[in-house]
Specification:
Layout: H1 4-8, H2 10-26, H3 31-36, H4 43-50, H5 58-68, H6 72-76
Length: about 80
């Protein structure tokens, strides 16, 4: 996917990445653990999300939220 949106909305992508990593770490999960709990999400994709490296589909974000037991608001919030 094109990274122009990652650049345009960098703060949002960075918040999401930071929060995904924090929530994953709080559970004692490695990236592969999170990927295994998400349909169609690889460990590499989790890494790209956490590092705000690549744009991703909304359904991917929903899978991650569901696996972490968090809402979209919680995932995208700046803490």
């Amino acid at each position: 996917m094109d990274n122009k949106y990652v650049k345009k909305y960098s703060t949002v992508y960075q918040n999401i990445g930071r929060n995904v990593k924090r929530f994953r770490s709080e559970r004692g999960w490695i990236q592969q653990d999170l990927a295994d709990k998400c349909e169609g999400v690889t460990r590499a994709k989790v890494s790209k999300i956490e590092n705000a490296y690549q744009d991703y589909m909304f359904s991917t974000l929903l899978e991650v939220c569901n696996a972490l037991g968090k809402s979209l608001d919680e995932i995208s919030k700046e803490y």
